[in-house]
Amino acid sequence: MGKKNPLLEVDPLCLPMGMRVGPWRIQGWRGRGAYGTLYRVERQGHEGSGSFALKLAIAPEDPRFEREALLLSRIQSPHVPRLLEQGVWEHPSGAHPYLVMEWVEGESLYAWAARRNPTSRQVAKLLAQVARALEATHAAGGTHRDVKGDNVLVCPRNERVFLTDFGAGHFRGAGTLTSKLLPPGTPAYRSPEAWAFLRVFRRHPTAHYPASACDDLFALGVMAYRLVTDEYPPSTFPDDPKAKVWREDGPGPQHPRSLNPNVSPVLETIILRLLSTAPADRFNGTTREAAMTLEQAAQNSEPELDTPLFFVGQAHCPRWRTPGDLRRAAEMDAAARKGEREQNDKSVRAVARRSRARPHVSTRIWAIGGAVICTSVGLMLASESWRLEKQQLPDSHQGVNAREGERVAVGNSVMFVAHSSNPQGDPVSTLGLPLPEKPFPGQRKPPCEPRFETAIRGACWVGLKMKPPCGNNAFDWEGECYIPSANAPRQPTSNPQERR
Fold first, then answer.
1. Residue 36, beta-bridge partner list
2. What is the pLDDT of residues 365-382, one digit of tens each?
3. Which range marks the domain in which residue 365 is found?
4. What is this structure's pTM?
5. Which residues form the Protein kinase domain (predicted)?
6. In this structure, how many other beta carbons lie within 10 angstroms of the beta carbon of residue 415?
């Protein structure tokens, strides 16, 4: 009898902890999609250098991984994962390609919003970062082709956003990997023109739909609509009766504010523009213009931008968030920020120790070391001071049934990319802010719901049952943390179509 090959017993879908893939040691399994499985790994021999994300192909010799690596290597953006390495893992079933990227824990966009109560201003900032990632992708000659909430990750400690999972992406000169008319993608996010192409060329033997920036912008609009209303716009699939709104002469989707009156008019205008039935009306197919418009909206002085989008209570339905979810998210965010501060403190102390351990170095080197320490401490203090000066509103959300449909590449909603620089600046926080003297626009006024609301200064507030420093967008009142409770929406008294 021949010797038993232990690799035959190993399934690429679920590698055991401690196993090596090239120079990378598996630390844990994190998710899988249609084409790949995601693992958390560390480099052997460099265990103290931190964790990384390894995406391993399910099928041997999958050509998608080579194309994804080529696309990622061309994109330069602080909001797109940076590729560190690509390689091949030899298995008895064949050679499985893999990609290695930087890692930080994060939440998918919808999961982040499901446990918080963001404002329109916060949403505009998040969407602007996604648009900047798409801008860099398009500038590199590529298209993402699967923009959706599951592929957008939010870092809870500072609301940094990353667009991930380029397994369905394409770029100029790349070969066609499928014989289907439409490229890989999630049906709920497909543009009307993509389905129209399918209808016209259904029987054509060699036709392939050329996805463009307009398709990515439409998907961004679907994601934005879902983010602020907890619902998807009508399906664009031609056989769906509701798809008639997407015809060239159609009215388009129901306005977000008719579903959720807390959505800012400025943000609603941008979302409807992204969802225009005519591709050219989507910011002329220019993601840079869309990003700039979203950034300008985030700086707008319109008071509705600071109204919490969702309603706080025990209802388990769209556009409602429970106090328990808000409290847990606030505690998690506060812990994440504390961990980041502690890590920064360790880095500063490490630099100081290295400087003290080398008394023989030249005066110039000592000066450089001192400058690094002072700069690091100064940036930390300035960042904290800047956060305390800002004043925003709460954070929460709840989930609805996702219409994500098919999975295109690896579902890496736990992978996150850490970059050393932050050109956008850290989002603001309300750590330690006192309760304002007056209610916010749209805030619920007494009589308050006694089960979970407290009347303070002429308005209703929801207690988070935690002590200061309070979490993101929570306020300090007599040693407790509170978030404002928003008014419930009024039922529409007229046809939404007539109010457009």
1. 57
2. 334 344 333 333 343 433
3. 323-378+391-397+430-484
4. 0.74
5. 24-294
6. 27
